[in-house]
Specification:
With about 220 residues, the protein is an alpha+beta fold. The chain has 7 helices and 10 strands. The N and C termini lie far apart (about 70 Å).
Length: about 220
């Protein structure tokens, strides 16, 4: 049984008296928290909201692609997720397949696992189907990889223009991608080709217009509506 009475203690600050039972409860709670009995609930991070330089959220998939339909579908999903996570983390937009095969993207020396060229191309083909990859001319040797689709980038860029009062004005492409004005924006340092595709999406929606009078990409401008 607890007997409630008032006393002075370190918990009774500024002349406030506290019941000893409450003091004991507070001490017990603090002790249990430190010991790990009670611990705050940690919010799980979402891959959709992580910044470009965050640690990749998926792990290196193991095993080559299997012919079984169900198994292959699960493997393909894991590989697509890993490729997008890896390229986003390392800010990669242009991918050379030969170089990628020797890199940690498709080869993991720690677990002695790597993906064959055939399987790597199959993964990139699947990402092309999903709208995240565009093969460049000359066969399947190089590709443009977009860990966000042009439509997704267009929404981010237009939201930035609205939030910062740039609707109705013209911004140069160089200013947006390289200038100090846009430092901290998610599209800052974005690949030029990906950026151009995002602006094309805004043009189709009637939210922006692209200008490039002299053919110099650095002097090109975007007017937001």
């Amino acid at each position: 049984f607890f007997f409630f009475f008032f006393s002075w203690s370190p918990f009774a600050r500024h002349g406030v008296r506290t019941p000893v039972a409450i003091q004991f409860s507070a001490i017990f709670h603090v002790s249990c928290t430190c010991a790990g009995v009670f611990s705050p609930v940690r919010q799980k991070e979402s891959r959709q909201t992580c910044r470009p330089h965050d640690t990749p959220t998926s792990t290196f998939p193991t095993g080559s692609l299997q012919p079984n339909t169900d198994t292959r579908a699960k493997q393909m999903e894991a590989w697509c997720d890993f490729v997008l996570s890896y390229t986003r983390h390392h800010q990669l937009h242009q991918l050379d397949v030969t170089e990628a095969l020797a890199s940690p993207l498709f080869s993991n020396a720690e677990i002695n696992r790597k993906l064959s060229r055939e399987d790597a191309v199959a993964v990139l083909d699947e990402l092309q189907r999903q709208g995240n990859v565009e093969w460049q001319a000359g066969g399947k040797a190089r590709c443009l990889i977009m860990w966000r689709s042009p439509a997704q980038w267009s929404r981010i860029i237009y939201q930035w223009a609205q939030d910062n009062g740039y609707t109705g004005t013209v911004c140069t492409v160089y200013e947006m991608l390289e200038g100090s004005t846009c430092e901290g924006a998610e599209f800052h340092k974005l690949d030029r080709e990906v950026f151009r595709k995002a602006i094309a999406e805004l043009q189709k929606a009637g939210q922006a217009e692209y200008f490039c009078d002299d053919g110099d990409p650095d002097s090109a401008g975007v007017k937001f509506f």
